[in-house]
């Protein structure tokens, strides 16, 4: 089967007054209808990889790739118009922080129905019904109240679920979720993961799950890419994380405290300049 | 006598004409040199307990004492508050938000000394340099601004600032939850070392059971403004947990446990 997404030698560079900064330095992978995790520390280029796929990197950032194709279509040569159409319907991204990604002066209901009315030309009533149904799907108990609420009236967990609902309304084929649960409590996190998991299984969604939390990704995803300094240093099945070979991956796992673990100083990561080569 | 003494503490906020009971009657005491943890989900009231202890949240009923003394009144600064600041300092969750963006590290660290009239210029210089060294930053960091530092370096500066007045109690509000795992390990190690060297007492808040377990001798699990269970480290290691809520939190944190 043809992959949903093909990425070959993806690079993102910024020309700044202080010189050239290469945020992503030749990342390659393919994605099917599966859960792919991208992990790494802040600054490793994982978010930039996600944004580059959706062509959301702003100048002076420049994106190049040998191949960047979604469902067989080349994304790099697509005019912005075509890209916008794809982004609305087939590609979506959930950002980390609902506080900054929802419009603070628009009710949730208006934000959720805007696309349905403009893009899909639905009537107000039909758009509203779709939005309420999607809020129910992300386990919001009182969707009618939430429709009339402003973002600041929602808790972090509710805001995050509203964003996920918004991204899922057009039923995308590919969802890039950037730290979608790191602002959430563990119980809400489990709920959000269950929702995403259901979408991959039932609707055949392709999911790129970006996170700094390696154990979480190992538990949730099918495959994991480990990024360091703009490159993929290791790629492995999530179930094989215990057998990770790269010293960076192993170091990241070892430095986490564990309940009932030893009391002495935690192992820290000694970075080898060679990892960035 | 316990160094931190909390009895029947209630914190009530007024929001849109409604009373929100953030802390609903809790008791706990922390001995000198002990490291005590508060663990719970967001909204459980754990941070509010810290804030009430240092006068950043109202004590609506009961008491919250450090060294037998109540925190300074909200919004007023007097000489009594300066004495309080020399005993108790707080480290906040977000090093991006808790350092002044237009003050150099040098200014951040010397300000407490100036406010408290401690030492002349040379003495201040010496203490700023020593403080940087204590938190593992070399002298080249002294005249940098917060935006020129990484998250971990900023949190080191925040720890150094909290220690400038040589307090005996540190209130730590999620001090590593904004940091990457590798940087978290470094900051936790730093805090443990400083506690040992200086005989500090910690009251530490986190949503992360593993972090609290690693850092604390005893811990209280909070839910909806109440303490549901107090555990020591040994009971936790044996899994001697009474409450379902604690068990659920623990299970969630162990699902994240590293692969050995």
UniProtKB/TrEMBL annotation, chain A:
<keyword id="KW-1003">Cell membrane</keyword>
<dbReference type="GO" id="GO:0005886">
    <property type="term" value="C:plasma membrane"/>
</dbReference>
<dbReference type="Pfam" id="PF00005">
    <property type="entry name" value="ABC_tran"/>
</dbReference>
<keyword id="KW-0547">Nucleotide-binding</keyword>
<comment type="similarity">
    <text>Belongs to the ABC transporter superfamily.</text>
</comment>
<keyword id="KW-0067">ATP-binding</keyword>
<dbReference type="GO" id="GO:0005524">
    <property type="term" value="F:ATP binding"/>
</dbReference>
<keyword id="KW-0472">Membrane</keyword>
<dbReference type="InterPro" id="IPR050388">
    <property type="entry name" value="ABC_Ni/Peptide_Import"/>
</dbReference>
<keyword id="KW-0813">Transport</keyword>
<dbReference type="InterPro" id="IPR003593">
    <property type="entry name" value="AAA+_ATPase"/>
</dbReference>
<dbReference type="InterPro" id="IPR003439">
    <property type="entry name" value="ABC_transporter-like_ATP-bd"/>
</dbReference>
<protein>
    <submittedName>
        <fullName>Peptide/nickel transport system ATP-binding protein</fullName>
    </submittedName>
</protein>
<dbReference type="GO" id="GO:0016887">
    <property type="term" value="F:ATP hydrolysis activity"/>
</dbReference>
<dbReference type="InterPro" id="IPR027417">
    <property type="entry name" value="P-loop_NTPase"/>
</dbReference>
<feature type="domain" description="ABC transporter">
    <location>
        <begin position="5"/>
        <end position="254"/>
    </location>
</feature>
<dbReference type="GO" id="GO:0055085">
    <property type="term" value="P:transmembrane transport"/>
</dbReference>
UniProtKB/TrEMBL annotation, chain B:
<feature type="domain" description="ABC transporter">
    <location>
        <begin position="6"/>
        <end position="249"/>
    </location>
</feature>
<dbReference type="InterPro" id="IPR003439">
    <property type="entry name" value="ABC_transporter-like_ATP-bd"/>
</dbReference>
<dbReference type="InterPro" id="IPR003593">
    <property type="entry name" value="AAA+_ATPase"/>
</dbReference>
<protein>
    <submittedName>
        <fullName>Peptide/nickel transport system ATP-binding protein</fullName>
    </submittedName>
</protein>
<dbReference type="GO" id="GO:0005524">
    <property type="term" value="F:ATP binding"/>
</dbReference>
<keyword id="KW-0067">ATP-binding</keyword>
<dbReference type="InterPro" id="IPR027417">
    <property type="entry name" value="P-loop_NTPase"/>
</dbReference>
<dbReference type="InterPro" id="IPR050319">
    <property type="entry name" value="ABC_transp_ATP-bind"/>
</dbReference>
<dbReference type="GO" id="GO:0055085">
    <property type="term" value="P:transmembrane transport"/>
</dbReference>
<keyword id="KW-0813">Transport</keyword>
<comment type="similarity">
    <text>Belongs to the ABC transporter superfamily.</text>
</comment>
<dbReference type="InterPro" id="IPR017871">
    <property type="entry name" value="ABC_transporter-like_CS"/>
</dbReference>
<dbReference type="GO" id="GO:0016887">
    <property type="term" value="F:ATP hydrolysis activity"/>
</dbReference>
<dbReference type="Pfam" id="PF00005">
    <property type="entry name" value="ABC_tran"/>
</dbReference>
<keyword id="KW-0547">Nucleotide-binding</keyword>
């Amino acid at each position: 089967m043809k992959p949903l997404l093909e990425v070959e030698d993806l690079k993102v560079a910024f020309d700044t007054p202080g010189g050239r900064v290469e945020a992503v330095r030749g990342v390659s992978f393919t994605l099917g209808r599966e859960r792919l995790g991208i992990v790494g520390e802040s600054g490793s280029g994982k978010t930039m990889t996600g944004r580059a796929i959706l062509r959301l990197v702003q100048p002076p950032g420049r994106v190049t790739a040998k191949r960047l194709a979604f469902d067989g279509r080349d994304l790099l040569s697509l005019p912005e118009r075509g890209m916008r159409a794809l982004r609305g319907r087939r590609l979506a991204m959930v950002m980390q922080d609902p506080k900054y990604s929802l419009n603070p002066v628009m009710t949730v209901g208006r934000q959720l129905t805007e696309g349905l009315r403009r893009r899909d030309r639905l009537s107000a009533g039909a758009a509203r019904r779709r939005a309420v149904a999607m809020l129910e799907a992300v386990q919001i108990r009182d969707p009618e109240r939430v429709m009339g609420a402003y973002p600041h009236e929602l808790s972090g967990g509710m805001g995050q679920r509203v964003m996920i609902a918004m991204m899922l309304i057009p039923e995308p084929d590919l969802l890039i979720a950037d730290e979608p649960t790191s602002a959430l409590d563990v119980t809400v996190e489990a709920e959000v993961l269950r929702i995403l998991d259901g979408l991959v299984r039932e609707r055949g969604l392709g999911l790129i799950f970006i996170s700094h939390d390696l154990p979480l990704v190992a538990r949730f995803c099918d495959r994991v890419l480990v990024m360091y300094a703009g490159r993929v240093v290791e790629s492995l099945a999530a179930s094989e994380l215990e057998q990770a070979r790269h010293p960076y991956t192993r170091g990241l796992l070892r430095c986490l405290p564990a309940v009932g673990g030893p009391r002495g100083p935690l192992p820290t990561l000694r970075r080898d300049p060679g990892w960035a080569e | 006598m316990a160094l931190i003494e909390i009895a029947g503490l209630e914190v009530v906020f007024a929001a849109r004409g409604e009373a929100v009971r953030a802390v609903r009657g809790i008791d706990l005491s922390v001995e000198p040199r002990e490291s005590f943890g508060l663990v719970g989900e967001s909204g459980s009231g754990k941070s509010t307990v810290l804030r009430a202890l240092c006068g950043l949240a109202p004590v609506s009923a009961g008491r919250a004492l450090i060294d037998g003394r109540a925190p300074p009144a909200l919004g007023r600064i007097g000489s009594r508050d300066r004495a309080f600041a020399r005993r108790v300092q707080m480290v906040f969750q977000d090093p991006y938000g808790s350092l002044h963006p237009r003050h150099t590290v040098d200014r951040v660290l010397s300000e407490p000394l100036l406010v408290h009239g401690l030492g002349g210029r040379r003495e201040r210089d010496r203490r700023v340099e020593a403080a940087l060294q204590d938190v593992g930053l070399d002298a080249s960091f002294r005249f940098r601004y917060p935006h020129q530092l990484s998250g971990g370096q900023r949190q080191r500066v925040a720890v150094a600032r909290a220690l400038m007045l040589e307090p005996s109690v540190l209130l730590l509000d999620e001090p590593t939850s904004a940091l990457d795992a590798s940087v978290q390990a470094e900051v936790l190690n730093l805090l443990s070392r400083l506690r040992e060297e200086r005989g500090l007492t910690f009251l530490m808040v986190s949503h992360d059971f593993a972090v609290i377990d690693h850092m604390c001798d005893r811990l209280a699990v909070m839910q909806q403004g109440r303490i549901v269970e107090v555990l020591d480290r040994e009971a936790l290691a044996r899994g001697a947990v009474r409450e379902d809520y604690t068990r659920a939190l623990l299970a969630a944190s162990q699902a994240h446990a590293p692969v050995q």
